[in-house]
Amino acid sequence: LCRYQHIWDIDLRFRPAFLGGIMEATGNKAPGMLPKRNEYMLKDIKRMGKYYQVPIRVTAEHLQRLLVPLSLGAMRFITATDMTQPQFLEPVSREFWVRFWSQVSIYKPNSCSFVAAQAGLSSEQAQKLLEMVSSPAVKNRLRATTDDAVKYGAFGMPAVVAHFNGEQHLIFGCDRMELLASIIGE
């Protein structure tokens, strides 16, 4: 979507949501829990990394970490960024993504500070965000956006909700951009 936001006539808005919360609310199981799907996904993700020239290193255990509460701290940091420094939401999200898929921990206390610096935030800005992570405002906001994702029909991530001609369209997965293009007339 980041590639297309300047080509298509779209107003792209990131809405941080907690994958573990979505899976729990929908009763869904991670694709990696299905043996043949897991086997395929591991190969497919590696192929996608090569194709998009992204340093992806993935294992079956790595995929399971997406659902654990440990990733909640990263999602709260992203949510705090969205609430107070929205101009950094995309770069902070991207840095967490690269860090996670390169198998560098996003769970250690210094991960948020490292990500913030990589995304261009000052150490003072990062510190303020870190102080917000455990606040009720951030927790409630993340819970609300996760609940919203479920209400839109999300059962996993990535989930894109396109609002077009008064209708809402849920698109699941990063490999459905041509369907989104068709819906919005691009």
From TrEMBL:
The keyword S-adenosyl-L-methionine does not apply. The keyword Endoplasmic reticulum does not apply. SUPFAM superfamilies: Thioredoxin-like (SSF52833). InterPro entries: DSBA-like_thioredoxin_dom (IPR001853), GST_Kappa/NadH (IPR051924), HCCAis_GSTk (IPR014440), Thioredoxin-like_sf (IPR036249). It catalyses: RX + glutathione = an S-substituted glutathione + a halide anion + H(+). It is an enzyme of class 2 (transferase). Belongs to the GST superfamily. Kappa family. This is Glutathione S-transferase kappa 1. The gene is Gstk1.
